[in-house]
Amino acid sequence: MIRLAGPSAATGCDIYGKAEFMNPGGSIKDRTALGILDAAERAGQLQPGGTIVEGTAGNTGIGLTMLARARHYRTLIVMPETQSREKIEALRVLGAELELVKAVPYSDPGNYARVAQKRAQEIPGAIFANQFDNLANRDIHAATTGVEIWDEMDGRIDAFVSAAGTGGTIAGVGQTLKQRDARVRVILADPHGSGLYDWIKTGTPHAEGSSITEGIGQGRVTENLAAAQIDDAVRIDDQTAMDWCWRLLRDEGLNVGTSTGVNVAGAIEIARRLGPGHRIVTVLCDGGQRYASKMFDAAFLKSKGIKPPDWLPG
């Protein structure tokens, strides 16, 4: 758990980030992968040499592939072609079979999650990991991430702020924190292009705009999100998220990814609403090197309407 000096000073609160980029696969999705794989093994769904199929923005696929290597399974990872080349290359290096598909909504049969489900049905002995609707995702975060946060903060937490993709992190952590103290506020930080902000505010998902962030945002209510105990939501634009990524790198030596920028910006917004003296926790989901071709490419950033930092060449 890292106290974030800049965000804390900007708000008069203590803002902490849980350093999930330090997991073996480099992201919080290692937990999701472990929970899903353990549950499948307990249920007898995987046999030696079997295949794990998943649709992912990258990080869950990386976690699953590392675990599959250790436990002697194969992986077929279906991924939108728009994801960073760093994640695509990482999956290939790890030995995953990789299928890249067009980035289309979940309602389209060509959506990466739907294609993965179809491939799992076509391969004898394969399982579909199904991170979006498999509650083993939520449960591993309730049993590990949430408990660790509570213990590391000595039970003194005013709010937990997190973005959501599958919803496993915010649902699982929120469940554990609220079981221990019902006063803890659980807040969704949502990028543009996602429908979850409107879902929290109005009860219906509705998406507008777009974002360069990966692995977060959602146009539907997944099974992991359906029962999540979320008190409120904030919407974070790309410029604000990226500015905090670059500030954390420049001022605190923390090279974090795009979803972390959304999380930190969301934590700052909630800290300002609560007022000085509160303790807010968020998640540092993964590292910025996984998105270097986007986060540190001035031409790409400008093409998306994002002003690069002054120190970035180009």
Strand content: 15-25%
Q: Give the spatial strand order of the biggest sheet.
A: 1-2-10-7-8-9
Task: Tell me the radius of gyration.
Answer: 19 Å
Range of helix content = 40-55%
Major β-sheet, in short? 6 strands, mixed
Structural class computed from helices and strand pairing:
alpha/beta
Low-confidence stretches: none
Overall mean pLDDT stands at: 97
User: Could you give the count of β-strands?
Assistant: 10
Shape field: globular
- The first-to-last residue Cα distance is 35 Å
State the order of secondary-structure elements, H for helix, E for strand: EHEHEHEHEHEHEHEHHEHHEHH
Number of helices: 13
Question: Could you provide a short overview of the structure?
Answer:
One of its GO terms (biological process) is cysteine biosynthetic process from serine. This protein is α/β, with parallel strands linked by helices.
Describe, in plain words, how this protein is organized in 3D.
This is Cysteine synthase A. The chain has 314 residues and is of the alpha/beta class. It contains 13 helices and ten strands. The strands form two sheets. The protein has a six-stranded mixed β-sheet with strand order 1-2-10-7-8-9, with helices on both faces. The mean pLDDT is 97.
Secondary-structure map:
Blueprint: E1 2-3, H1 5-11, E2 14-19, H2 29-42, E3 51-55, H3 59-71, E4 74-80, H4 85-94, E5 97-101, H5 112-122, E6 126-128, H6 136-152, E7 159-162, H7 168-180, E8 185-191, H8 196-202, H9 223-226, E9 232-236, H10 238-252, H11 258-274, E10 279-284, H12 292-295, H13 298-303
Parallel strand pairs: 2-10, 3-4, 3-6, 4-5, 7-8, 7-10, 8-9
Antiparallel strand pairs: 1-2
Pathway: Amino-acid biosynthesis
Domain Tryptophan synthase beta chain-like PALP: 2-286
Cofactor: pyridoxal 5'-phosphate
